[in-house]
Amino acid sequence: MSNVISEAEQPQLFGHPKGLLYLFFAELWERFSFYGMRALLVLYMTKHLLYDDDMAFGVYAAYMSLVYVTPMIGGILADKILGYRKAIILGGILMIFGHFFLSIEMPIFFYGSLGLIIVGNGFFKPNISSFVGELYAQGDARRDSGFTIFYLGINLGAAIAPLLCAWFAITYGWHYGFVLAGIGMVTGLLVFRTGLKNNVFGNQGLVPNQEVYDKKSFGLNRGKLIVLASIVSVGIFATLVRFNEFEGYLVWIVSAFLVFYIGYIISTVSSKEKKRLLVAVYFTVLYTLFAAIFEQAGSSLTLFADRNVNLVGMDAAGTNSINAAFIILFAIPFSMLWTYLSRRKINPNSAVKFGLGLLFLGLGFIVFALSAHSVDDFARTSMSYLVIGYMVLTIGELFLSPIGLSKMTELSPLKYVAFIMGVWFSANFYGHFFAGKIAKLTTVSDGNTNVFSEGFFGNITEYITGLSPQIASGQSDAFQQLFSYVSVYASFGVISVVVGIFAILISPIIKKMMGGIH
Predict the structure, then answer these.
(1) Quick one: which H or E segment has residue 229?
(2) CA angle 202, 118, 99 (to 5 degrees)
(3) pTM, entire model
(4) What does the pLDDT average to over 473-496?
(5) What angle do the packed helices 477-505 and 271-294 form, to 10 degrees?
(6) CB 353 within 8 A of CB 399
(7) Which domains does the chain have, with CATH numbers?
(8) Which residue has the higher pLDDT, 138 or 475?
(9) How far apart are CA 436 and CA 460, in angstroms?
């Protein structure tokens, strides 16, 4: 007799399925590895490999965007063949090798490591998030709360990792920081395996169709063929990162694939499911804008902190932990807030929350831009603006990101949950692609200013920061670099605020299309 337990019999802990605890810690350690490496990457390239800003931003943007396009493929393969459990384990193993190979200082290992992490994340990231959704029945009032708790796990890892990995990198060398990130990934996979061994997931996440999984081609079953194809694809993704100037072609290919496959799904589902799916796409578009602006955190904001902020108590890599620290501080109160508002039937619907998320994101970047008012003789600003700006945009993130994770599992047709979760993560693919373009706007070459320093946006910049190209041009190179940063942050901050207000205004239409999903 099978020892697999049904959903109704799943063990509970603190009012949530016990499986959430294991997924929480597995994701915590996986994100520790991911954000620990991310915090070091741009600084490692500019300070150790001596890449110029354009090259470093290009590699970083290509890596970070591809990390979020592979979840679409990993989601499809999990839906159809692997199941969540096998996909998560495969992804974890690939990422472990990726982090450890970064400690070998050779170009083939540098780009190969990034390729391994890109492919591994494609299997790990969408499927562990989908697994959380599968722990809750459709319409379960605990779902948003559960995802917010899960999101806390993500950010515990993200808060600790930049500080620890940066300390290791500074104290012992860059490669030790990368090794520590790899150890985090090993720990995450061990936690997940422990959950499987303790049978806390009931019958969730298994191979969806064993007959399909076992079907052989070229002497190998489909599961083994997927492993082989994954290893082969590492070289392809490593090449795309190295020659990142051609990534724009991939954007068109991915877009064509998404339009085709989502169109196919729309043609096969009911009218109600069609509307919900269109809402999922709309939320993904809003999240793309959010990610393009928000993800300056690992690139231009890290260099801004390094070059133009008077840092106290941490280095530039460590500033990557500020956002995650505020998530930790606010996640549980937000989780309790949604539950409290739901009980009183005054919880804002998801469409309003998305608008508020973009509104607060924009305000956070406007705070970064306002830092120009406290600039000293060395073109450095007060760290307080950096901290307050991160606090404000973190509030925006909590309105949008964990709620988006929760809604994707509800808005998706049942047969396509992991793929639609992959579509949600594709917002990060597009977001990071455009984030790279935004980051490159902050570079200064031959005293040239960016497009946001003149005209309509130039007026916005001058109103918010008190600076203009004329004022900046008479100052030092460091001052001109500061002006380049704050002009971009002021302009995109205002754009985000305007889109957020628009999203709130049209929220009643979106709510109606959601067909009863809050």
Answers:
(1) helix 222-242
(2) 90
(3) 0.77
(4) 88
(5) 160
(6) yes
(7) 11-245 (1.20.1250.20), 298-403+447-517 (1.20.1250.20)
(8) 475
(9) 22
